[in-house]
Amino acid sequence: MVKDLAFLGFLAAVPCTTTPCMALQIYPLVDQQRSVATISKDQQNRIAVQGDRIQQIFGTDGVFDVQSDEEGGQIFLKLLYIGSSKAVTVTIVTESGLTQDLKLIAKDIESQSILLKPRLQQGPRPRRQSHDSGI
Asked: What global pTM score does this model have?
């Protein structure tokens, strides 16, 4: 049984080691927070927000070629200088007004897809009423 499981694990790993794989990275989108993600140095990378659309991206001038998918609300980034290994921080603003900073680290890997998942918005907690005893 253990040998069978080990063999199945090996088979599951083979496709990614013998053929190019596009990786999906999923991060929580927490307004006004920063996440660190890995991107491909020489291939196009995709960034999307689940249930929302990217309206603006800042910090890409002179670093990335940026293409926007107006219909889907996602963006595609490609480094302009492949030799650069310096991390770059970009800021994404969504149509619903959420802001997310992403520190992008370029590596010699295949194209990456980054999906930001907004956390459920919780309203303010109800305040406890104090009962004045009148004393």
From this structure: 0.71
